[in-house]
Structures are given as structure tokens and as C-alpha cells.
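quick one before i forget lol
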Amino acid sequence: MDLLRRHTHTPIRTVVGQGIPEKKQICRQISNSPAICKLVWGFTLFEILIAIAIVGILAAIVIPEFLDRSQQAKETTAKENLQIIRNAIERYAAKNGGIAPGYPSNNPAAPVYEGAFYVKMLNYNYLTNKPENPFNNLTTIKMIKNNESLPIAATGQYGWIYKAETKTFKIDWPGNDSQGESYYDY
């Protein structure tokens, strides 16, 4: 308890110099020794609130622009991925008597499945990797059987939708892009 009484603190004093910003001087006196002082730079609450308001205004201007660019990048990536995949499918079919990838042993009477599609496309270097849907980050493919119709609309449950019988490859993402075009119609 005696130790606490010996440590006295003097209040914070403001020092305003010749053209220098405001500094705060904190002094502490221990026992009978001279006071030890240190200068501390500080901001007032008002200055901090002004800075926060400015940052908020700038964020309100920049964030929508950033989100718009991000959306456009995803749309461009989706279109490019579709073009690459569709070209790979056409190249494969051209080298395999018109049979699209996805049929086991290139037998068009057999049911299509995703594994056969990716094995043919990746092992024979038509694709370098499994393409990712940029909107849901999925590489899975909903395989449409022969004599079945394509879905009317996309659900977003898969990365892609593929019908080997017609060599139709679509993105599985609902909604419209920034130009009003349906993603499913890319």
C-alpha cells in the first residue's frame, strides 16, 4: 500500500509549440525523484471521427466498382472456359469418328458418365485440368443421357451440364449476367 502512495501521476498537459502539431506531455513522478516526462503524439476524438467518415465515403465509392469488376471477371472466365471446353469436345470428336467424349470405350450406345469425360479430356491432353465454374467453383458435370432433354433452367448444383449426344456443354448457373443474358445461354 505504501508503494502505491509513493507513485503519483501528474495530469496530462498539452504543449503547443511554434507551428508544430499538438503533443501531449505525460509526466510521472516516483518518490522524491524529478518527474520523468515523455511527449506523446495523439489525435482528438473529433479528428478520428472525421477520418472514419472520409474512409467510409471512399469505401462507398470504391466497393461497388470493385464488385462490378469482379462480376465481369467471372462472366468473362465462364465464357472463356466454355469456349475452351467446347473446342476440346469438337477436336476429340473429329479425331474419334464424330463420337463425343463421355462414352466408355467410345461406345455411343453406352451411358455417358463424368469419369469417362474427364479421363478422355485430360489423359489425351484436350484439357490441362478440370475447368471450374467461376460462380460456384464446382468442376462437376451433370451428364444428360441419350434421348433425354437438357434441363429447362440451370440450378447451380453442378459446375456444368453436358449432353454428349449433341455435344452440348453449358454452364450450370441460374440468373443473368451484367448485360441481361442468361448464364445458361452462354
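fyi Residues 1-63 form one domain.
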